Amino acid sequence: MNFLDGSLFPENQPKLVITAAPYGPEWLPSDFPEDIPVTMEEHIQKAVDCYNAGATVLHLHVRELDGKGSKRLSMFNELLAGIRARVPEMILQVGGSISFAPEGEGNVAKWLSDDTRHMLAELQPAPDQVTIAINTNQMNVVEQMCEADLAGTSLGTPEGYRAYREMTIPAGPEWVEEHIRRLSAKGIQTHFQLANITQIETVERMMRKGTCNVPLILTWVAIGGGFDAPNIYNLANFVRACPDGSVLTLESSMLNVLPLNMMAIAMGLHVRCGNEDNIWTQRRDRKMGSVEQIEQLVRLSREFGRDIASAAQAREIYRIGTFYKDADETLAANGFAPNRRPFWKGVPIPA
Which Pfam families match (predicted)? Predict the structure, then answer.
């Protein structure tokens, strides 16, 4: 991405898109019972509350009544339908892991099988987006968490800590290409959840080969443990690797979430918050729910002079419903250099 003179002026920036992640699949309801929904009505109401607070994108997971993350697609269908009926304008983004929560006591948290995740393309009503990881990777979500982050929670127990320390993401090239093809065929946008620059490079190569003809709507997931750490050097390198036509959201964990989101607001990027990412205030004097986190970002963004996107504006910014016919159109729309032609020498710039 290029930052020309005036790029930090709010009048030259898109309105802020806030993604809410209020279903905290790594937590047990007992970790934050005031904020983590369990019943279907609580799930739906949480979406409504996040929307009313200013979030226009909802990153969703769903729980069974026993509090464990649901792995049943029928539950996702029920939740999607319930939210559509109450807040039809909201962008619904299904977490591509479905539920990475351990299936039983002592088990390691893991993503479901390739075939099961492919079934997300068959959800009814169809979500607007499904998140996708690129390249099989470690996802040790507790690596950069400290004792104060985990105090009094299920992740602070030896079994809970180990379950999430050992988690990996299966996302090999054959599965990724097929998954994008299936989602696109159903009119569902792929939202890329990327850990580092190498994964952007893989996406670019797919686009150059014509196997990924979609907008580059992505999130930098800076959580450590196989992903980039949330520091200014990694952020600058990642942003520089993103082409000008991409749409970038920043994501981190625990007390890194707010500082990173403030950088995103200032830079004209987009933000994500919610109890999936953090449950504490910056002083750790109390827990902070998803709606309060959204309200905080709305307030800060207005202090920066940057307006919050409406649902319609967020759909336009995210290019919901847009797909491309071939590699040439995809590369041009996303701001990548064109594919090399046989008669081009040196840097591939068309005459």
Answer: BKACE (PF05853)
